[in-house]
Amino acid sequence: MKLLLLLLGVLTFSSSAFANENYAFPEVIDKNARYVFYSHGYIVEGENPTPIHERWGQYDFPAVKAQLTDSSYHLIATHRPAKTHPFKYAEKLAAQVNKLIENGVPAKNISLVGFSRGGFITAITSSYLKNKNINFVILAACTSGLAKRKEIAIYGHLFSVYETSDSVGSCSDVVARRDDTVSSFEEISISTGKEHGAFFKPRKEWLIPVKNWLKRHKG
Question: Which residues constitute the signal peptide according to the record (predicted)?
Answer without folding.
Answer: 1-19
